[in-house]
Each structure stands twice: as structure tokens, then as C-alpha cells.
């Protein structure tokens, strides 16, 4: 019995062993791409070829019918498929520009799909294995870091230079360096070679605006590096640092308040009052006031607010005056009565302006008629005449009746008097009825005179026609 048990046990073990051997033959082959060593690598993209070296492959556990190397970007897009280590070490990574590359070893079977430049390793279909990857970091040129400013100057004819500019060159690379000064849209204004040269630049001479100071590093062959060009048009291997800002402000004449003012030109002096100047941001060595017409022709140059408020605007007649405050530097030309502010030359600034409107007298608006009568010996009077005096100005008023040549025939003082005039005795012709407003001193207001010969302050309304057939 013991021998039988032993035999059965041996048979069972044999069956188990055979079974295990059969299972092993059915298992799929597991691909293994090995292990890469070397790097990581870091290069400067400067137009000079950069190759990796010292890469090795541990192929002790390598499994797979086909093999190659694969170079991708950092998103695993395939850039190249060098077949050997020698081919990998012959690749110029500088030509790829800045960024990161991954180097893989790949093993695969014949059914692999997607192995071509432009595709992504994540989209491979078939039997394959990728090794670990080696990183190649492709750094751009580094122009360092500038410190200093920001700077702010007043454009006033006096030289303005920056100071305290420093360059942190810790990570600086590149074969050539210079400083670049541009405007705020990156047009090149100058190329000072050193910090000392930068600090010798007179920014006042550039006029009002903004300048940017940069440090540039570049390789031979860079094109576009000259005044008048734009840094966006550079072509070659280069890098710009951060920029320092230089703001060139114009003179500031302050802000004036008051008005607007409105007067009636009637022979009575009219002065402004309550004019103020906010001088918080005022700059410039010399200031005064300027009064112009509405075409900016200079009428007067009062030196102070008190002088401005002493000006009689009535004497200027009907029109519009503008009051300005001006700040300027020595050497300004054109600042005199009779000139136009647009012809000023030199360093100056004008404030906002205050408006002084000088209105003429207003005789109102007449309504009624026109009237037509027949000369037949019977009295003919007008009726229904009205005067809209909502805008009426002036200290004295009357009505005026003229012929059609504006010769005065009568001066009825009221509408009632106008409507009492008998136009029949005037005979055939045309009469005009006017309303007149005027000030003391008006000359020529008499029957037989012509309204065109009036002298003084006055205004006539529209006229109403009376035709006498």
C-alpha cells in the first residue's frame, strides 16, 4: 500500500510538471527596450552645432525583433528616428531652437504603426516598448538682467541722463553684447556699447515720449541691429534682457478753473472773476497768461490772475476769447500779441483754456405779416405784431420803420405806436418794420438817416414787410 501511494504521488507530480511546462509555452513575449544612460544635456541655442555624447544602452534584457532610437519634443511628438547611437550623437540639437528633447530607445515588432516624424508616441499601435528617456534642454541666449529706474524727466532743454544702471551677468551667455535704446514701439534709437555710454545719453534731446533701455547678447550673423530698424525684425541668434523705462514728460502748465464766461457787448466793461490755477503738477521756469481769439491769435499776455481779471472783454467786440496759462523755458520765440500760439517755438506748454463768449446785443424776434395794402386814400394800419423778447438785451429799445433801402421813415416807440401808423400816405413802395435795442451814445438814430450809418452799440431784429401797391 505504501508503494502504491508513493507511485501515485510521483504520477501526480509528473502531471503537475507537464501542466506547468505547457502553460509556459503559451505566454506572450514581453518586449524590453533596455535602459539608456547619459546626460541630462543642456545646450545654448546660438547657431553653433550642439551634439550629445557619452550615451550608452544596457541591452542585457533587450527583447524585440526591431530596434531604433526615437527623438521627441517634450510632448512626445516624434522629431527624428536615428537608427543607432552613432546617429543619435550626430544630431545637431541647436537647429531645433529652444525647448526640450527626449531621446528614447525603441524595440518593436513588425506590426507597429505610427512610427514616423510628426506623429506622437502615445499613438503607437502594435507591439513595442520604449526605454527610459534622456533629456536634452535647449536654452536660448541669456542677456542678463538690468536694474535701475524707472526714470522720469521733464523735456525742457536741459540735459537729462540716467544713472545707477546695473547688469546682473550671472547667467549671461553669447559671443557679443551691446545695449540698445528704443522707443516704446521698439524702434532702435541708439546702440551704446557700455553702461557708461548708456549713462551718457541725453534723453531730453529725444523729446516727449518713452524710451526703453535693453541689454542685447547675440551671435555673429545677426541682421537688423541698426538705428531706425525694429528689434522685432532681428534675424539671427540673440536675446534681449528686460527693459528699463525712461519717460520723457513735456512741461506742464497746470489746470485752470473758472467760467465759462458770457457777456453782452454793450459798451459796459465786462471782466471775468473766480479764475483759479491748480499748480500741483506745474513745471517750467517761467509762467504767464495768454488771451487769444478762437483761432488762437494772441490778443494779450497778462502776467498774473489779477491782471487777467482786470481785462475788459467788452472792448474786444463780439466773438470768443480763450484764456490760457503758459509755462516755458528761456529761448521761447513767438510769444507776443498778434502772433498765433501754433507758431511758438521752444520748450513750452499750455494749460486747458477758459472760454469767454462776447455776445452782441439782441433785439428779439418780430412776428406778424407780411402786410399788403392798396394806396387808395383810406388809412392802412398793420395789426397782430408781436415781439419775442426772451433773448432781448440792451438798455434801450424802440421800433424803426424804414423804406426798402433802410432809410429811416419813423421811430414809433411801442407796438401800439407801430400799429397806429397809417402806411397809405407813404405812397406806393415797401416799408420795413424793425425792433431796435441799443445803448447810450448811439448815433444816427433819426428820421432821414440810414440804419447802415449807426455808430454805437445796437442790434436790429428781423424785419416785417409792408407792401404798398
From TrEMBL:
Record-given protein name: DUF4394 domain-containing protein
Source species: Flagellimonas allohymeniacidonis
Signal peptide as annotated in the record: 1-21
UniProt entry keywords in alphabetical sequence: Signal
Amino acid at each position: 500500500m505504501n508503494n502504491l501511494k508513493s507511485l501515485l504521488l510521483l504520477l501526480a507530480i509528473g502531471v503537475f510538471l507537464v501542466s506547468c511546462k505547457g502553460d509556459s509555452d503559451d505566454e506572450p513575449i514581453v518586449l524590453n527596450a533596455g535602459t539608456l544612460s547619459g546626460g541630462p544635456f543642456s545646450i545654448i541655442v546660438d547657431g553653433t552645432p550642439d551634439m550629445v555624447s557619452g550615451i550608452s544602452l544596457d541591452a542585457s534584457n533587450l527583447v524585440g525583433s526591431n530596434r531604433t532610437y526615437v527623438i521627441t519634443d517634450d510632448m512626445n511628438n516624434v522629431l527624428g528616428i536615428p537608427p543607432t547611437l552613432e546617429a543619435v550623437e550626430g544630431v545637431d540639437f541647436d537647429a531645433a531652437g529652444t525647448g526640450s528633447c527626449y531621446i528614447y530607445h525603441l524595440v518593436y515588432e513588425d506590426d507597429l504603426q505610427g512610427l514616423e516624424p510628426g506623429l506622437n508616441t502615445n499613438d503607437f499601435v502594435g507591439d513595442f516598448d520604449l526605454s527610459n528617456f534622456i533629456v536634452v534642454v535647449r536654452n536660448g541666449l541669456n542677456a542678463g538682467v538690468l536694474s535701475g529706474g524707472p526714470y522720469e524727466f521733464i523735456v525742457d532743454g536741459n540735459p537729462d541722463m540716467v544713472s545707477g544702471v546695473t547688469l546682473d551677468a550671472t547667467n549671461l551667455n553669447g559671443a557679443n553684447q551691446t545695449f540698445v535704446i528704443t522707443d516704446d514701439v521698439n524702434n532702435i534709437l541708439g546702440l551704446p556699447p557700455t553702461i557708461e555710454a548708456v549713462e551718457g545719453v541725453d534723453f531730453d534731446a529725444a523729446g516727449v515720449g518713452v524710451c526703453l533701455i535693453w541689454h542685447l547678447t547675440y551671435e555673429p550673423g545677426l541682421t537688423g541691429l541698426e538705428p531706425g530698424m525694429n528689434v522685432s525684425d532681428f534675424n539671427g541668434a540673440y536675446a534681449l534682457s528686460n527693459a528699463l523705462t525712461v519717460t520723457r514728460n513735456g512741461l506742464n502748465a497746470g489746470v485752470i478753473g473758472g467760467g465759462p464766461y458770457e457777456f453782452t457787448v454793450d459798451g459796459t466793461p465786462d471782466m471775468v472773476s473766480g479764475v483759479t490755477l491748480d499748480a500741483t503738477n506745474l513745471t517750467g521756469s517761467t509762467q504767464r497768461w495768454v488771451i487769444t481769439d478762437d483761432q488762437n491769435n494772441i490778443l494779450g499776455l497778462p502776467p498774473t490772475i489779477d491782471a487777467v481779471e482786470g481785462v475788459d472783454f467788452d472792448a474786444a467786440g463780439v466773438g470768443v476769447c480763450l484764456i490760457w496759462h503758459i509755462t516755458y523755458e528761456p529761448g521761447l520765440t513767438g510769444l507776443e500779441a498778434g502772433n498765433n500760439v501754433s507758431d511758438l517755438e521752444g520748450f513750452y506748454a499750455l494749460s486747458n483754456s477758459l472760454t469767454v463768449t462776447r455776445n452782441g446785443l439782441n433785439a428779439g424776434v418780430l412776428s406778424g405779416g407780411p402786410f399788403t395794402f392798396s394806396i387808395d386814400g383810406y388809412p392802412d394800419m398793420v395789426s397782430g405784431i408781436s415781439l419775442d423778447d426772451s433773448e432781448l438785451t440792451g438798455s434801450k429799445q424802440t421800433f424803426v420803420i424804414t423804406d426798402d433801402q433802410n432809410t429811416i421813415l419813423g421811430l414809433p416807440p411801442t407796438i401800439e405806436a407801430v400799429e397806429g401808423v397809417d402806411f397809405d400816405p407813404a405812397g406806393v413802395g415797401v416799408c420795413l418794420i424793425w425792433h431796435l435795442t441799443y445803448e447810450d451814445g448811439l448815433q444816427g438814430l433819426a428820421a432821414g438817416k440810414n440804419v447802415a450809418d449807426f455808430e454805437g452799440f445796437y442790434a436790429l431784429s428781423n424785419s416785417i414787410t409792408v407792401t404798398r401797391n
